[in-house]
Design brief:
Length: 134
C-alpha cells in the first residue's frame, strides 16, 4: 500500500523533482501554499511531511508544529539550504522535525531517509493502537 507523503515548498521545481523521485512507491501530494497543506492534514492521514524552512507566508517551523499537533504520529522532515542548517537544528531539539536535510540533496540518501521516516511513523502509529487496545 502506498504511503501518503506531503511536500511543501514555494519552489515549483523542487516540488516536481521530489514528486518524481518519491512518487513511484508513495502517494505524493505537493503544496506550494503551506496553509493549504495544513488544511489537508486536518482531514487526511499522512505518513511523512517534507517541508521547506523558508517560505513567504509562514515558516517551515510553524507548518511542522501545526502538522505535529494534528498528526502526532506523522514523521516530519525539514528541508533547507545550507545557509539555514545551523538555525534548523533547534527544530530537532524542540521535536518540531524528526530530521533535517539540505538542498541540494542526494537522491539515494533522501530516498533512504524517507523510507526510514515512514517506517518510524508507522511504528509510532502501531504503538498508539496497541496502547489504546491494552
Amino acid at each position: 500500500m502506498k504511503k501518503n507523503i506531503v511536500i511543501i515548498d514555494d519552489d515549483e521545481a523542487i516540488l516536481r523533482s521530489l514528486k518524481r523521485l518519491l512518487g513511484t512507491n508513495n502517494h505524493v501530494i505537493c503544496f506550494s501554499d503551506p496553509l493549504s497543506a495544513i488544511e489537508y492534514a486536518k482531514q487526511n492521514p499522512i505518513s511523512l511531511v517534507i517541508c521547506d524552512l523558508l517560505m513567504p507566508a509562514i515558516s517551515g517551523f510553524a507548518v511542522l508544529e501545526d502538522i505535529k499537533l494534528l498528526q502526532p504520529n506523522c514523521s516530519r522532515l525539514l528541508i533547507t539550504g545550507y545557509a539555514e542548517l545551523e538555525a534548523s537544528k533547534s527544530a530537532l531539539n524542540n521535536n518540531i522535525a524528526n530530521m533535517i536535510t539540505a538542498k541540494p540533496w542526494d537522491n539515494f540518501e533522501l530516498t533512504m531517509l524517507v523510507d526510514i521516516l515512514i517506517e518510524n511513523s508507522h511504528l509510532k502509529f502501531n504503538q498508539c493502537v496497541e496502547n489504546v487496545s491494552s
